[in-house]
Amino acid sequence: MDILASGHEQVVFCSDRESGLRAVIAIHSTALGPALGGTRFFPYPTEEAAVADALALSRAMSYKNSLAGLDLGGGKGVIIGDPKVHKTEALLRAYGRFVEALGGRYLTACDVGTYNADLDVVGRETRFAHGRSLAVGGCGDSSVLTAFGVFQGMRAAAQHRWGSPSLAGRTVAVAGVGKVGSWLVDSLVEDGASVVVTDVDAAAVERVLALHPGVQAVADTAELVRTPHDVYSPCALGGALDDETVAVLPAEVVCGGANNQLAHDGTAQALADRGILYAPDYLVNAGGVVQVEDERHGFSFARAEAKAATIRDVALQVFAAADAEGVSPAVAADRLAEERMRSVGRLSTIRLPATR
């Protein structure tokens, strides 16, 4: 792995023997502002796997924040370990001190394996921990608006593909019904969609079925992707759209909350070749980062929700650009994000008067 060739501005390795902390913080870009991205707590098999994930996720955050219209760059933290076993107050506070040492270049928040309460602990050591509990003035669970944004992206995809933004009468297959997927199911059921779900956590599936008895559950993702459906929604970990999945997928639309869904650079074109409309993950799952960013200004859920609702408009813009330019939506979204990073980021070269 050539970290220097990745294009990242900074990669920091964090280690504290006493607490057991082993972490990586990757800052991809600060062209638009400080690098915002959550901290993932996950039992990576190797240090190399953790670094690779941090690099990929932080780059996606740069693009996500840019397309969301935020004045923020992209970064990501990953903590190596099983959060059910290794998460302690001392470890989280040690991590917070490493975040603080970056002086605001990196703003952290929740991700897989971390929750609002964890960020409250991290925040005892740093000014740059966001996505905190409502009780301490934070924005609360950012998965609420993440799911809302995915639903808006799915409505845009339905509009582009079938001429109506409604999912009523459509079957949506949701892979992963954890923090984001479960909220998404709520919206889909309310909109009149038929929903099929799966999750490695049987308890998560049981919670969804208890709330929505009409939802169908299947054993695993392999069965899910072969179940007839109109929309496939990956809402678990990355790499969900590999060659084998794309080859058998019956869906006409892919739109989900998971980060880094494309297994490799050719996956977006493979989906297009099969006539499947792909809603770029970092575009449609930006509702959570919009919610977290709003916390920095004194949190207003209504204001953040209104901002997240624009995901539908941006998605329609991306789909139209993809058609006009003869490229996949992934390429069209990248171009739009890169143009904003270039044009707006360039403004930092205009020097302002010094202030005291």
TrEMBL record:
SMART domains membership: ELFV_dehydrog (SM00839)
GO molecular function, one term: nucleotide binding
GO biological process: amino acid metabolic process
Annotated NAD(+) binding sites: 176-181
Active site (record annotation): 76 (proton donor/acceptor)
Domain Glutamate/phenylalanine/leucine/valine/L-tryptophan dehydrogenase C-terminal: 140-349
Keywords associated with the record: NAD, Nucleotide-binding, Oxidoreductase
UniProt cross-references to Pfam families, sorted A to Z: ELFV_dehydrog (PF00208), ELFV_dehydrog_N (PF02812)
InterPro entries assigned: Aminoacid_DH-like_N_sf (IPR046346), Glu/Leu/Phe/Val/Trp_DH (IPR006095), Glu/Leu/Phe/Val/Trp_DH_C (IPR006096), Glu/Leu/Phe/Val/Trp_DH_dimer (IPR006097), Glu/Leu/Phe/Val_DH_AS (IPR033524), Glu/Phe/Leu/Val/Trp_DH_bac/arc (IPR016211), NAD(P)-bd_dom_sf (IPR036291)
PROSITE patterns found in the cross-reference section: GLFV_DEHYDROGENASE (PS00074)
Family classification: Belongs to the Glu/Leu/Phe/Val dehydrogenases family.
Protein name per the record: Valine dehydrogenase (NAD+)
Species the sequence originates in: Klenkia taihuensis
